[in-house]
Amino acid sequence: MQSASDRHEYPAHWEADVVLRDGGTARIRPITADDAERLVSFYEQVSDESKYYRFFAPYPRLSAKDVHRFTHHDFVDRVGLAATVGGEFIATVRYDRIGPDGMAASGPADEAEVAFLVQDAHQGRGVASALLEHIAAVARERDIRRFAAEVLPANTKMIKVFTDAGYTQKRSFEDGVVHLEFGLEPTERSLAVQRAREQRAEAHSVRRLLAPGSVAVVGTGRTPGGVGRSVLGNLREAGFTGPLYAVNKAFPEDLKELDGVPAHRSVRDIAAPVDLAVVAVPAEQVPAAVTECGEHGVQGLVVLSAGYAESGPEGRERQRELVRHARAYGMRIIGPNAFGVINTSPEVRLNASLAPEMPRPGRIGLFAQSGAIGIALLSRLHRRGGGVTGVTGVSTFVSSGNRADVSGNDVLQYWYDDPDTDVALMYLESIGNPRKFTRLARRTAAAKPLVVVQGAGSAPQGHAVRATRLPHATVSALLRQAGVIRVDTITELVDAGLLLARQPLPTGPRVAILGNSESLGLLTYDACLSEGLRPQPPSDLTTEASAQDFHAALARALADETCDAVVVTAIPAIGERSPGDAELAEALRSAAAAAPAKPVLVVHVELGGLATALSAAASTAPRAEASPRARTDDDDRAPIGDHRVPTDDQHRARAGGGDRGPADASGGGPAPEAVVAPEGAHLIPAYPAAERAVRALAEAVKYAQWRREAAVAGKVPEYEDIDEKGAAELIGGLLARGQGLTLGTEETCELLGRYGIRTRRAIPAPTPDEAARAADALGYPVALKATAPHLRHRADLGGVRLDVADEEQLRRSYAELTGLFGKPEEIRPVVQAMAPRGVDTVVRAVIDPAAGAVLSFGLAGAASQLLGDMAHRLVPVTDRDATSLIRSIRTAPLLFGWRGSTPVDTAALEELLLRVSRLVDDHPEVVAVTLEPVVVAPHGLSVLGASVRLAPPPARGDLGPRTLPTY
Fold first, then answer.
1. Residue 831 half-sphere exposure, CB side, CA atoms within 13 Å?
2. What are 889-910's pLDDT values in tens digits?
3. 251 contacts: CB under 8 Å, gap ≥ 6
4. What is this structure's pTM?
């Protein structure tokens, strides 16, 4: 049990699980008086050299006084943290607050001496770096701003821990000791170092799950059938390259082998190391299985067992305990309630899933939280990817189930620098950490395409997610800002994935259309216009077109400098010169190969083997006869079949065989051998409908544009008239009144004014006489407005009178408003000077607890609200973000001279957006800002209404030390 300190209660919020450099996990927690025996045991396992480096002298054992000192802390001036695996210490760190004289001190002294000790067996795993991040966060919480450390020059490992951390530091050498001092405020470099370490560690933790050297299936049934026995069979059929083990405590003691695989009653009985355990036992038996795996040194678990958070509160607690249990042994978990994982690499050939067949090897990474969607994605890629080419297959597949531990964020970290993955496809039912996901997505999308389908409903019961107040459409917009290719269905997911995996990115939106069907060409042309592309008039080759005609037309289109992409439409034709499927495919492939920088897509209608022939053309692999007629299904209407993967003498990976695979399940029959195109060849994707091909192309065009823009980073401008310090003092004084408050008009204007945002004064007018005096002070013409909540910003209800020219008209307007809507105290009238005519807009900023600060922009009015026509960007907003933000709404043409109107001052509007972004980024206590309306005139703008809400800032997990989520 943890003991309370002598000055503060045990700080449980300092506890955290972390991923280490090698992909294992450790638990970091405060050291308490109950840890005396653990500390002594830990110290006994440290080498004499490490002890010498720690104490600068031989120090073979700890005295009773030492043990007391190192286990009794006040959690303020003296703090100790330990990294544990399996409940035992593997490393410790402590700080002691010191004064200017270097002696022990209390606050307000803001410096502390820090020291580490890491067991030799765990050195090189990044334990000290993780501990430094956490002890620094603890110190900042206790108002310590600097650390000092003394290190022997020979202790190069520890010196490197400090110097590589990225903090601003000073270094000196005196009396044979290196003296280091460094500030603890996060810097741009320290955050970059921290995130680079996070990426390497989390990627390695996923790699240990996807590329294990050996696998044990815990819960393998004694008779055929059942989950465990099926997974063992799938691993064998896939040809897993490492040792396999079947484990079941119910095996007879004399059973030594099952299906040619060594059989054991317990993981403990396996003499060799086990890297991955697939757990397929009832939920009540999982804890015992986890303990066995942890004690044997298993590195990771895939838990297929159900009965966890998806089953209700009791299961949710069972799931929490499962994660705690596994992490205590340094293991990560995929699941529970998972479908499994697949790695098609020839060095691994892992099918630790319920999929009855191994997908074709390829360059597409798949992640699905839902097992059912995972099956559908694999099946669709089998039909579409396999039907077009045996190469466009899967590199890795993860179906995470309840994703209690390993999530889409972890898999993104792995895919980011995975050389076997060129395109990432993800189906997300929920996003547990939107702030981190958008950060990782932006970095991944800058290197390779990331296509996402995001569920629009509430998170499944088994998923623990942070609460977000952002609408689904807003989250989608933020994902697009991060470079994510956001689609709505798994059909669109596969359509976009196949194009991006096979073809280069287009350099612009200009599309050439050619084919042997005028009608299909026109359909494609209309689809291009609908998707915002710029199509050229279709080139009709007529139904008499030969393969040579297609080749020549495609070559001309690709050579045209005014063309960025080509869509080829083809229908079956009858005639002596009509090309066969293989002949047409060869013609298209050879023409495309001559201009490999531009993407080519094919829209085909019932062309039998054309899709397969497109991959076979110019291939070095043997070709087989195309099936006489393509099979269709309701969704894809593309050739499908049981394409076999090449085999070697020791293994045949079957995509069907005697069992029904995805193609068979949809009614597909036998089909030709899968083929392999030449290395580096661009394979032409084929689509059964023009709309689907064009939609995929449009997404590729937008993504390519994002890549080009992301290559030149925007800037957050500095404005000399911003008074950041004055705003901070004002906010601090206002928050002293309470935990959260909406500012009054005067306070709002003052705070906004500190950031150069001027608002037009609105004077309350509780009586007609006061309205007249206000108008005299402001000068006619004026506006009279009702500001009650139900009337504010609703000019359509008649609560506003504009261009009031004199006192007589003002009094008449006042009487009209009170007559229509009620007493003055009910409608809260105000008088405001008239602003120059322009376009009414609205600017909002809000701090979301999950996604962070979000800046939104749109036109004011009921129509825009009804249509949800708002654009969004994550804060801080750059100059490029501001420019794109005002152009992202559908009603943006109204700002740029639509139908002969005068364009408004968009430069002033962009500056306003940047100033609001700076305000909420500099001061996280500003949790909501609304400027409505903002009238943008041809010259300048006027902020006519503003509201600001303050509250204590939410915790910024992305600025703290690395931790795994706790559920």
1. 28
2. 999 999 999 988 899 999 999 9
3. 222, 258, 263, 264, 265
4. 0.83
